[in-house]
Amino acid sequence: MSAAGATARRSGTFAWPWRRQRIGPLEYSRKRWMQLVMLAGFFFLYFPIVSLVVFSFNDSKRNIVWQGFTLRYYEKAINNASLHEAFMNSLTIAAVSTLVSTVLGAMLGLALYRFRFPGKGPFEGWVHLPIVIPEICMGVAVLAFFARLDIPLGLFTITVSHIAFSIPFVAVVIRARMAGFDRSLEEASADLGANQWQTFWNVTFPYMVPGIVAGALLAFTLSLDDFVITFFTSGPGSTTFPVKVYSMVRFSVTPEVNAASSILIAITLTLTATALIIQSRANRGQSEG
User: Fold this and answer.
1) What is the pLDDT of residue 252?
2) Contact (CB, 8 A) for 155 and 91
């Protein structure tokens, strides 16, 4: 032990590193208030979702007072043909939108990471614009765009709108993933005789894969859950699952509506959790590497 440490120990001010330091009354009170604020925030955010899921099992048509447990409203939701059609429309739109937006978003994110050009800062801000602006403004904008080009509203217009909305999210994920990339790996590949395409497919692309998967799952979730943009760009015969649930809610909030919403919540949570797990593992591997 150093002389300063021995002196501090003799004077009584020395604290071993493994001993817990005592928290003063003010610090303890501040900590408790912070915990109460966080608990109130979680309650405010998630209690409506929990109550929706709970009342989806309620054996009551009015859905106001708990009358008992039942699964028949899930059976009604599953056997509802219009819900089936709307859900298949949502899956089709989400699949096509995810495929196109992932490819374009990955190329955009890689280009933002790799290249420097005049006006790159404003261009990056312009790329992030669909993330920042209110979604209703995006819906009005794409509706005006399709009306100006005299394109009839339907599945095509919804898909194009979802692609335009999802590309920035994928690009942000890829850009963040590539921030930790070691460019010396590409230089080593070139020194070993590989051309640019071989270097990309054997070195760069494998590093991008976790970001691509996370971005694709994020794009799929955004497309599957979107209501505002879909509401503005949908036409006859192109009703999606969120729009269908909204039309059911306009009549009354029944356990069948809660059951359909709970199914959508379960799918969204599963995809979101998968994307977060992939992203966290990629970041952990990046930090360990």
Assistant:
1) 67
2) no
